[in-house]
């Protein structure tokens, strides 16, 4: 079952069990919704901005372990980053789970997010890992439409 | 996979069935597939069934030696092709015990069958203020076509409620039957719960008030006999691919008197008597509802599937599947924090379940690692998911070729899911 351990790494199971920043932010500067109706993965993202810096970020929602852990780890990683830095992380996360194969070194530069590197071997689950990030992207671009990665 | 031992120690719930499952499995080439070095355990039969060699070979033989368009050529091959197509119709007629072959309309599947009735019957018989009566456990394909009809006509939908076991509440059903009700459309067997509905009683109650009834039989056909005369229903739908036939072919049974009165569904070749720019006249049923070149090879393949089922016999299938159902229900219930969704008194071999704290998709991914294919999601029955307050379920659905060993493997993996997610 080594393949499964690649997907469900301890840090992912931990963030699924006890998601960080799982709350609503009163009067957020940005908010966006992500919904994968076929899966049933749903998240609402709240972002507080201080200039172009993400001063607070939180989410609520329900779904599979991959989508919930991805949202949780995303919030812990993005908090304190600038909008540009967050978008760069989005781009690199996306490349890691869905882009062409990469060298291990590139993953390491993503820190804890590298835990999602195993997702690429489970094509049906890529959309779960990506949903929170696409939702963040929409929030930062101030797009009103609900996001989906299905 | 130590957990499997505790499963095998469960008491035997039924005697050995009369079905020679090993022989049956040899009829289905795909069942020999290896998934990541493990034998495939295909437990998603409610989504689509696998095909026996006889169906595959019949379709192949048709294209190799009988293919031509039907109902027009005067040449040898066209006559052969037409005979094969019409012989398949006769087989489906016998399968559902319809009075006449022209009561069988070939369609793409149940979805098209329901759309056909919603469009053709709906257009001619449903007006503003009328009501279409459905049930809480309908598949989206028996909801959305009626919503489209309601939007176009100003009619509205009413819904027969169900109880926590997943059984329809017939007392409420009776109250919903009024002089505004123009049609009852109800599923014979629920794809997400496995419930077998008392459709004969449902039809009788509607007929007392002169209301026609459509029965969605997609999930019934692979599990038991269908007798439209005994049910006395007015429409009955089949999907070939769910009953060991090809995809893209199905059948609508329609009572002859209703089919005759209904306007056409689609216009085109084969459904006309004569065409001029001033106007056209239509062929009688079933041709009236089969515009264009149909899925001829699919129909012939469906005929082979009907023959295959007849060769096995319903009693052997029923007994075998019932054993699998009871065994799977007991064994899955014994896994900590697993809850079975759908506990009706009469069920086919479909077991939907949820596990506390674990999303069904994660269950699906874990069991897939052991080569076990189950369905996770809402199964195109979102109102059922809403009723139980769950976003999705994991669903194992068994067919005649599944084995007790495959159920054990599933249960063992579901125990492992519990371990992984703590």
Cα separation of the termini of chain A: 27 Å
Instruction: Count every beta strand of chain B, where a strand is a DSSP E run of 2 or more residues.
Output: 17
What would you call the structural class of chain A?
A: alpha+beta
- Could you list the spans of chain A in which at least 5 consecutive residues all have pLDDT below 50? none
Fraction of residues in helix of chain B: 40-55%
Oligomer: heterodimer
Spatial separation of the terminal alpha carbons of chain B: 16 Å
Largest sheet of chain B: 7 strands, mixed
General shape of chain A? globular
Mean pLDDT of chain B: 95
- Unreliable residue stretches of chain B: 1-15
Explain what you see.
- The complex is a heterodimer of chains A (150) and B (422).
- Chain A contains 6 helices and 3 strands.
- Chain A is of the alpha+beta class.
- Chain A starts with a helix and ends in a 10-residue tail after the last helix.
- With 422 residues, chain B is of the alpha/beta class.
- The radius of gyration of chain B is 22 Å and the shape is globular.
- Helices cover 40% and strands 17% of the residues of chain B.
- Chain A binds chain B through residues 1, 3-4, 7-8, 13, 16-17, 38-40, 42, 62-66, 122, 124-125, 128, and chain B through 36, 357-362, 365-366, 369, 377-378, 385, 391-392, 416, 420-422.
Give a short summary of the structure.
The complex is a heterodimer of chains A (150) and B (422). Chain A is an alpha+beta fold and 150 residues long.
List the helices and strands and how they pair.
The complex is a heterodimer of chains A (150) and B (422).
Chain A: H1 2-7, H2 10-17, E1 30-36, E2 41-50, E3 53-62, H3 65-78, H4 83-98, H5 104-108, H6 126-140
Antiparallel strand pairs in A: 1-2, 2-3
Helix pairs in contact in A: 2-3, 3-6, 4-6
Chain B: H1 4-8, H2 21-26, E1 34-35, E2 38-39, E3 41-42, H3 53-66, H4 76-96, E4 104-107, H5 110-125, E5 131-135, H6 144-153, E6 156-160, H7 170-176, E7 181-187, H8 199-207, E8 213-216, H9 228-231, E9 235-239, E10 250-254, H10 256-261, E11 272-276, E12 279-282, H11 296-312, H12 314-333, E13 338-341, E14 350-355, H13 360-368, E15 372-373, E16 375-377, H14 382-388, E17 393-397, H15 404-421
Parallel strand pairs in B: 3-15, 5-6, 5-7, 7-8, 8-9
Antiparallel strand pairs in B: 1-2, 4-10, 9-10, 11-12, 13-14, 14-17, 16-17
